[in-house]
Design goal:
Elements lengths: L27 E5 L1 H4 L10 H6 L1 H7 L3 E4 L3 E2 L11 E5 L6 H13 L3 E6 L9 H9 L11 E2 L22 E5 L5 E6 L14 H16 L4 E4 L36 H13 L6 E4 L6 H5 L9 E2 L2 H5 L4 H16 L6 E3 L8 H4 L5 H17 L3 E5 L20 H4 L47 H4 L6 H14 L10 E3 L5 E8 L2 E8 L5 E2 L5 E5 L11 E2 L3 E7 L1
Parallel strand pairs: 1-2, 1-13, 2-5, 5-9, 9-10, 10-11, 12-13
Antiparallel strand pairs: 3-4, 6-8, 7-8, 14-15, 15-16, 16-20, 17-19, 18-20
Helix pairs in contact: 6-7, 12-15
The structure holds alpha-D-glucopyranose (GLC).
């Protein structure tokens, strides 16, 4: 799938797609996990060349933007979320020049590109951290991190009771410059990811500079990793109940969701606003309440914050309706779009999450949930492979797993490799077009059945999940009632049905999801536009199958 000049829409003035600074309010953004998307050089690891070659696929799928998980130089202790150099690209992915070429190609196709920004921590191989180790206690270099003497008679105990999200203490004892045991440093994640000290002016300046570096290269914005973690409670107090906090939880602890983070985001907003074309930032902030999430997207802060409550919600009409309503209220109170998502590189794919032991049911519910999400007002983030209905891979052998929370055994659920298996593009044998050659390597093995789920197999099959996504995204672009917005009109149809209407002066749309295990009759929903399973019976009063959803053109 290569790009051809004659199929590309003309680049917008200034080489950017469209001039709409508010593009993000209704955007569908596709998350690329670079290691697993497409492997251009056949070494078994996805790369920027592979992504560039498949931009046409993403344009045809109908998304507005691409989010690239980290591509920076990194020892890969946590899939690149351990950055040794924020201004270079890891050789396994390519070069900065490759990023510039990718951005130019994407813009020419009308796609925007956002990259991951990892401000909570760097790699223990970052020059600042190496300098801090070298220069020892009390040095300005150490003030950019959280170094502390230990507790106990001999400093042999960690400075406080915080635990790493990946298991074990959140502190590791460093050696003094003379080689003897020295201070401890804080790492909420692996010991290879020392936390920055955001009280340091040098850290604050450095990140504004890193943002400008990438914005100058045409990047359209950032996904802010662990956006709720940068500021720690003064004095780094004990939690008093040393228990591992799950990576994806919403706990309010002394190192998450502290009020001080917002000043940082206000200063970032001024940087983003210096650039033309609507440069954005989306927060990965796991908070206790929707109202706390909304604080990250106040008008002078970031643009979007993932709605993880939606991602975590069970497949149940009553609960979903209540949650969607509260989400829209919380975000519209600060004039921000709700940012829906069902899957990403940290969670069990939604086709498996909804399965409850029955993969067929999981896929039906996933297709329905995706149609529901794409009908909701606001922006939506898709995770690569969900458009193929990929399930979580649960039988990876231990020796191939790379998720640090698995490797640290005592922490996390260690399951994140299962959603990171390389995509199947075509062909009958691994790596199914992920790399160029049949039988070539892939960094995680793909299941044998994935030939049936490949892009090539699904293309043109009207019943496939890929064609469902293509149709939904095409309709979303065309239909005046879909996309950006802040409210829906709920319809009370029948128990187990989640139904709402979206109105616009140019037309209205009704979305209905049946979260029950049985078909339900719909009274006069209008003209069917799209459904995750074909409704049956009389078109005027169709039966919406179990675990399915549909869109109707309302009168
Ligand atoms: C975020 C990332 C996750 C990573 C962690 C530490 O939660 O999404 O993949 O392990 O931060 O950077």
């Amino acid at each position: 799938m290569t790009l051809t000049a004659d199929t590309s829409p003309p680049p917008a003035p200034g080489g950017r797609p469209g001039a709409d600074g508010d593009w993000w309010r209704g955007a569908v953004v596709y998350q690329v996990y670079p290691r697993s998307f497409a492997d251009g050089n056949g070494d078994g690891i996805g790369d920027l060349t592979g992504i560039r070659d498949r931009l046409g696929y993403l344009r045809d799928l109908g998304v507005d933007a691409v989010w690239l998980s980290p591509i920076y130089t990194s020892p890969q202790a946590d899939g690149g979320y351990d950055v040794a150099d924020y201004r270079t690209v890891d050789p396994c992915y390519g070069t900065v020049r490759d990023v510039e070429l990718l951005v130019a190609d994407a813009h020419a196709l009308g796609l925007r590109v956002i990259t991951d920004l990892i401000p909570n921590h760097c790699s223990d191989q970052h020059p600042w951290f190496l300098q801090a180790l070298r220069e020892g206690p009390g040095s300005p270099a150490r003030a950019r991190f959280h170094f502390r003497p230990g507790r106990g008679v001999d400093n042999e105990l960690p400075p406080n009771d915080w635990l790493s999200l990946f298991g074990g203490p959140a502190w590791t004892r460093a050696a003094n410059p003379d080689g003897g045991p020295g201070e401890w440093y804080l790492h909420l994640f692996t010991p290879g990811q020392p936390d920055f000290n955001w009280d340091s002016g040098a850290v604050r300046d450095e990140f504004r500079s890193i943002m400008r570096y990438w914005l100058d290269r045409g990047i359209d914005g950032f996904r802010v990793d662990v956006a709720h973690g940068l500021v720690k409670a003064p004095g780094l107090p004990d939690m008093g109940r040393p228990e591992a906090v799950p990576l994806l939880g919403g706990n309010r602890v002394p190192y998450f969701d502290q009020d001080g983070v917002h000043e940082i985001y206000r200063s970032w907003r001024t940087v983003l606003d210096e650039y033309p074309g609507g440069r954005i930032a989306v927060a990965e902030a796991w908070t206790k309440t929707l109202e706390r999430s909304a604080r990250y997207v106040r008008p002078d802060e970031l643009h979007q914050a993932f709605n993880f409550k939606f991602l975590s919600a069970p497949w149940d009409a009553t609960g979903l309706r209540e949650l969607i309503g509260r989400s829209l209220d919380a975000m519209s109170a600060v004039d921000a779009p709700t940012t829906w998502t069902l899957s990403n590189h940290d969670v069990v794919r939604h086709a498996s999450r909804y399965a409850c032991g029955d993969p067929g049911r999981g896929l039906r519910r996933a297709r329905a949930a995706s149609l529901l999400m794409l009908a909701l007002p606001g922006s939506a983030y898709l995770y690569q492979g969900e458009e193929l209905g990929l399930p979580e891979v649960t039988d990876l052998p231990d020796e191939v797993r790379q998720d640090p929370s698995f490797l640290r055994k005592d922490g996390g659920n260690g399951l994140r490799d299962g959603c990171r298996v390389p995509l199947p593009w075509s062909g009958d044998q691994p790596p199914y077009g992920f790399g160029a050659a049949d039988g070539g390597p892939s960094w995680l093995p793909q299941p044998e059945q994935w030939s049936a789920l490949s892009v090539r197999t699904q293309t043109g099959d009207p019943g496939s999940t890929l064609e469902l996504y293509r149709a939904a995204l095409a309709l979303r672009r065309q239909h005046p009632a879909l996309g950006a917005g802040s409210s829906v009109r709920w319809l009370d149809l029948a128990p187990g049905l989640l139904a709402f209407r979206r109105d616009s002066p140019a037309g209205s749309l009704v979305c209905v999801a049946n979260t029950t295990g049985a078909p339900v009759r719909l009274p006069r929903p209008g003209r069917l536009l799209l459904a995750s399973e074909p409704p049956t019976g009389d078109a005027a009063e169709p039966l919406l199958p179990a675990d399915s959803a549909g869109w109707w053109q309302a009168d």
